[in-house]
Amino acid sequence: MRTQVAIVGAGPSGLLLAQILATHGVESVIVENRSQEYVLARVRAGVIEHGAVDVLSDYGVGDRLHREGMRHDGVYFQWPGERRRIDFVESCGHSVWVYGQTEITKDLINARVADAQQIFWSVSDTAIHDADTGQPRVTFIDSDGNPGTVQADYVAGCDGFHGVSRATIPDSIRNVRERSYPYAWLGILADVAPSTDELIYALHPDGFAMHSMRSATISRLYLQVSPDDDIANWSDDRIWAGLSTRLGIGGWNLQSGPTLEKSITPMRSFVSAPMRWGRLFLAGDASHIVPPTGAKGLNLAIADVKRLGAALVAKYVDGSDDLLDRYSGEALERVWRSTHFSWWMTSMLHTSPADDPNREFMLQMQLAALRHVTSNPAAARDLAENYTGSVLPYP
Ligand code: RFL
Ligand code: PHB
């Protein structure tokens, strides 16, 4: 089969790229190694920058987000005995939206199905060939066990951190910068109304905790745990007790409820550059990972894809290579800004392991940073610009 752009991966990056291209009359085919049901059931990010909301709206997948999503004009930071709010609108004139990645994925799949565009679900053995030539190809085994080939002008590697696209680029060309963290996040989705109107990020000697939400009736909460911890060690009672201690503050109570999903996610910062090799372009988690503390993973993916989509459209419509040539360098500027912000938020809010000799010193540094950022208007503005994504112009 032949198409203009072969897309590997039907996560938010791949699906949104297909939607952007289709809007401008550029054809694409997606190959995805999971089933549609699996992709639709994954629980992940929830905070969408205002610029990312604009991209989704501009490409016809913002209606439900505007109807069912929740606009948040601020956020709470907390440490023992104190909870303070940063007002995004007052600080920088922008907001964020709380709307699950699962819902964005659903909206994008529905748009693709409505346009009868092709997605190969449940493929295996995906491989990218000849990306450094004028005739790249993607091969795979389809869900019936038959071999398939997509010949394309370009290949978009949107297959996340564990995909095959990044590894297609020779090691001699790739530059990897990464760090791991001595903690992970235990996340739960709970069938209970949020106990807060806006997100709470809490520093506590027992470890970080966060209260987020998905709707007026569904809460999303997180606890810092050790990266080698096992979810089997965490009964629902133990999770709610930990959340209640770490998020607790006088006169406020955390409401608990049935747990719908729970999992532990390790944290890392990772950037692989360049984001292009010949006719292969990487976008989203295929090229970079941030710890979730700044809510940047999904937003970076959307920004990459907006930039890549515009570059491919410029090539097909005007015959210009200029944006394609600038893609990697310009995308990486936002990637590094978000990598820094996520690392900084993570460092400010997570408690060092008990055997860290610098633990008590770090706690004082963290308290000093939290007091500063929640009281100094210039510091609050910097946080608000980074959190809402307005710190750099959207592509
Ligand atoms: P995705 O979403 O990982 O999608 C990649 C898609 O590619 C498929 N794939 C392949 N397809 C074909 N052939 C292969 N060989 C393939 N290998 C993989 C995968 O099945 C998948 O469908 O990457 P994308 O589209 O770049 O989107 C990025 C976002 O998903 C990601 O940045 C965020 O979800 C990160 N993230 C979070 N970000 C936040 O901002 N806040 C969060 O709370 C948050 N929680 C999370 C997360 C990521 C998680 N992962 C990846 C483990 C929680 C989890 C569990
Ligand atoms: C979420 O709602 O899942 C969420 C919110 C903010 C973060 C990370 C995750 O920083």
| Number of DSSP helical runs | 12
N→C terminal distance: 32 Å
CATH class identity of the largest domain: Alpha Beta
The CATH topology of the largest domain corresponds to FAD/NAD(P)-binding domain
CATH superfamily of the largest domain: FAD/NAD(P)-binding domain
Strand content bin: 25-35%
Ligands = 8-demethyl-8-dimethylamino-flavin-adenine-dinucleotide, P-hydroxybenzoic acid
Largest sheet, if any?
8 strands, mixed
**CATH-derived architecture of the largest domain:** 3-Layer(bba) Sandwich
Question: Can you characterise this structure?
Answer:
With 395 residues, this protein is an alpha+beta fold. The chain folds into 2 domains: 227 residues, FAD/NAD(P)-binding domain (3-Layer(bba) Sandwich), CATH 3.50.50; 124 residues, D-Amino Acid Oxidase, Chain A, domain 2 (2-Layer Sandwich), CATH 3.30.9.10. It is 37% helix and 26% strand. The protein contains 12 helices and 20 strands. The strands form 4 sheets. Strands 6-5-14-15-16-13-17-20 form an 8-stranded mixed β-sheet. A 6-stranded mixed β-sheet has the order 8-2-1-12-19-18, covered by helices on one side. Strands 3-7-4 form a 3-stranded antiparallel β-sheet. Helix 1 runs parallel beside helix 6. The longest helix has 28 residues. The mean pLDDT is 96. The structure holds 8-demethyl-8-dimethylamino-flavin-adenine-dinucleotide and P-hydroxybenzoic acid. The site of 8-demethyl-8-dimethylamino-flavin-adenine-dinucleotide has 33 residues, from helix 1 and helix 9.
